[in-house]
Design a protein that fits this description.
The structure holds 2 protein chains of 2 kinds.
Chain A: E1 3-7, E2 10-14, E3 19-26, E4 30-38, E5 45-50, E6 56-59, E7 62-66, E8 70-75, E9 84-92, E10 98-100, E11 104-109
Parallel strand pairs in A: 2-11
Antiparallel strand pairs in A: 1-3, 3-8, 4-5, 4-9, 6-7, 7-8, 9-10, 9-11
Chain B: E1 4-7, E2 10-13, E3 19-25, E4 31-37, E5 44-49, E6 56-57, E7 64-68, E8 74-78, E9 87-96, E10 99-104, E11 108-112
Parallel strand pairs in B: 2-11
Antiparallel strand pairs in B: 1-3, 3-8, 4-5, 4-9, 5-6, 7-8, 9-10, 9-11
The chains are: A mainly beta, B mainly beta.
Amino acid sequence: EDQVTQSPEALRLQEGESSSLNCSYTVSGLRGLFWYRQDPGKGPEFLFTLYSAGEEKEKERLKATLTKKESFLHITAPKPEDSATYLCAVQARSNYQLIWGAGTKLIIKP
Amino acid sequence: NAGVTQTPKFQVLKTGQSMTLQCAQDMNHNSMYWYRQDPGMGLRLIYYSASEGTTDKGEVPNGYNVSRLNKREFSLRLESAAPSQTSVYFCASIGLPLGPAAFFGQGTRLTVV
């Protein structure tokens, strides 16, 4: 069964304290892995797509990496405005569905 | 740049009432999706439409129906609302099977009393 698990459920960091969020997945043939950011009361906002193991993408303080079993979202020197819930999803080659993790709620304290 | 537009943003229904959630995208995307999001759970797929003229059930289709009216519009209907359908509903669209990504509307917060 295709599955996505994100950890931790919540993460509290001080401003400037770097860390990583984890997305573990099981899928029969990965078409793509997606990272999204969701602010309260809003729809998820696209951050990155990763297609194959070894691939990395960067955007400002965020860097996403991919292995055959998991993806990491690394946050370097975070700021309070990085506080949000970060969602991971995978798409299998066999269909058009996206399979979502439950998300990691990130709180950056000034 | 509208992207994906959902209406309404908020709705309160009584048990047994019906309503339709509307979704429209202006990005010429082929695939459209309806999700529900509940606290502590990931986004759960209700129905999706891989292309105009096709619809398929997702993970939690019971109690819902959909219509892909044309390439732009994909509506979700609750025929007889139940308290278990209290949730935040999101519509999303994606251009190609390989991405680059799904784009989401702002959501509809539905409460069934």
